[in-house]
Specification:
mainly alpha, 69% helix
């Protein structure tokens, strides 16, 4: 049985509060995000979280209404 240490590392670093998400982008889009994150002085992950937050809040509100 093959042992994948990268998966193990992700599991150890992940907490129940956070889960990783992988998104495939065109290189040009990735570079634009990288440049904007650098301009703001924040990690790319933080920038993407900021951009996703309004949509995630809306999804949560819709889910609450359906429950």
């Amino acid at each position: 049985m093959r042992h994948d240490s990268s998966r193990t590392a992700v599991r150890k670093l992940s907490s129940p509060k956070y889960r990783p998400l992988t998104v495939t982008l065109a290189s040009s889009d990735w570079l634009q995000i990288q440049a904007e994150a650098a301009r703001q002085g924040i990690p790319m992950t933080a920038l993407c979280r900021q951009w996703l937050r309004p949509s995630l809040n809306e999804l949560g509100e819709r889910s609450e209404k359906l429950a």
